[in-house]
Amino acid sequence: MSPVRRVAAYAVLVALAAFLLAPFVWMGLVSLHPSRSPIPDLATIIPRQPAWDNYATVLVGTDLPVARFALNSLVVTSLVVGGQLLVCSLAAFAFARLDWRGRETVFALFLLSLMIAGPVTQIPVFLMLRAVGALDTLLALVAPGVGSAFGVFLLRQAFLAVPRELDEAARIDGASHWTVYARVVLPLSGSALATLGAFAFIATWTDFFWPLLATSSLENRTLEVGLSVFKDSYGGTDWPLQMAAAVIVLAPLLLVFLALQRYFVRGVTLGSGK
Amino acid sequence: MRPRPQTRDDRAAWAFVAPALVHLVLFALAPIVVAFGVSLFDWKVLKGTMPFVGLGTYAGVLSDEGFWNAMGNSLEFAFLSVPTGMAVALAVAVLVTQQLRGLGFFRTVYYVPAVSSGVAVSMLWIYVYLPESGLINATTRLFGIASVDFLNDPAWAMPALAFMAVWTGLGPKMVVYAAGLLAIPPAVHEAAALDGAVGWRRFWAVTWPLLGPTHLFVLVTATIGALQVFTPVYTMTRGGPMGATDVVGYHIYTEAWVRFHVSTAAAQSFLLLLVTGAAAWLQFRLLRDQAAGWGAA
Predict the structure, then answer these.
(1) What is the span of the domain harbouring residue A42?
(2) Distances (CA, A) of A239 to A58, A205, A265
(3) Distance between CA atoms of residues B297 and B282, nearest Å
């Protein structure tokens, strides 16, 4: 590439990065303006004295239990990620490694459900959970998330890539299916498990619709729904506080993403046939 | 020559698959049946009555102007956001698959909006679109352009939501296109160069058609996502102004949980599933035929 084109390419790359990140930078800066101050002008966007206490105010200083929202999100997300990895990897092992009648039919059911997810299931799942009295509980937030057809599919592909000779060697030593699953296949599929875990984390942490529907009492809300409640309470009146709340929701997401970013590429390209 | 009956792992396999299968039945398959069942009744939640009306609910939905408005809005949102989003993502993918240093950093940055919380991002964009002091209006004012209240102007609200969707959706589309670009063997480009195809001509004659399956994948997944959009509408416009952004995903939500017309909402969710499936099928047919045409040419 000629030097001129190289410079032009970097100029476009940097401009695009600035365009994508500008709103986040603005968010961080506004969150440090004194609480209740008017929306800063572009000229006065950098706060003279960073108001770090906005963060303490958001976490413990309002009549909304924000720390409780954060705890709920942490518990729900951990349980969903752990549950999804276990449930999906068990099923994926049966599809990739075991020889059984009905395997193709059951796998087709999983693939079919990839196509029919969406708003159709929300009303019935709500009604079912209400019928068993599980609405507004931890169960209602966790149970719908512990399985994933996408996860079964992704892990099956990964398990198929583990050499079968390793299973057979273990079996000659008398290993059970469980031992092959737990001691041979899982340890060799770390990056696929990380990919699914990363996607499950982001999807659960940022899920809005389902926790909005499934919880009704304030202390059972997750951060994402709590942020919406916060916005409705302080929206238009206190931009710095609102933006501090948004930073509190975003920060863990960005940390997880930066730590696991290479696994996102793998998950997104899966299924495009590449 | 394995003796088949002994190698069958039926019992163990069902035990391994049972948790995922129970989950699939409870949270995906049974709900489809229940939703269809509910849509055949006229369930009055507040009165507690539930007479059977068969397909009457669907007739009611199809003659409801509000629903058609919502369906039109969803299609408008998809038309505004999907092709633009794909074009931007492809252009960026071409850029980040060049031979340059530091592209990994830019790929990561471009993905950030896609992993951000939908509510937090919506709050950001409320500010970006504010009249007078918002990021856009504050910038355009420097050029003497009059302020626009994007989210409260019926003509601007939907394009504003679509523009934001292009911003949030860039990362995953870019990654898929980059993978598609990198999968084209270098020999193909070298052969095209020998035939004198360079620059734009090579892009349109060689790269673009070879991306066929990638276009299809991005188009279908992006369209399905666009037709189900909910969070930004709920957080930013609540379907307004004057129903201009009342998309189907939000319309179903208000029908079921604000007006308590559960049967109507169930029927609407089925119709949305039908439209989504039809759109995916149509795109698949069109692009497959086109791919076959490229092969023959």
Answers:
(1) 3-58
(2) 12, 23, 35
(3) 23
Q: Pick from B13, B28, B120: which is nearest to A250 by CB?
A: B120
ipTM of the complex: 0.89
Residue A147 sits in the same domain as residue A50: no
Q: A73 and A14 share a domain?
A: no
What tens digit of pLDDT does each residue of A10-59 get? Answer: 999 999 999 898 888 888 998 999 888 877 777 778 888 888 999 998 88
Cα–Cα distance for residue pair A142/A124, rounded to 1 Å: 16
Q: All domains of chain B, ordered by start, with CATH?
A: 44-112+170-292 (1.10.3720.10)
Residue identified by tokens 């856009």 is B136
Which B-chain residues 179-238 have CB contacts (< 8 A) with chain A? 179-180, 183, 213-214, 217-218, 224, 228, 230-231, 234-235
Whether residues A179 and A123 share a domain: the answer is yes
Residue A274 domain-assigned?
Answer: no
Regarding whether A196 and A126 lie in a shared domain, the answer is yes
Q: What would the pLDDT profile of B58-96 be if each residue is shown by its tens digit?
A: 998 999 999 999 999 999 999 999 999 999 999 999 999
Radius of gyration for the alpha carbons in chain A, expressed in angstroms and rounded:
23
Tally of domains within chain A? 2
Q: How many CB atoms lie within 10 A of CB A111?
A: 11
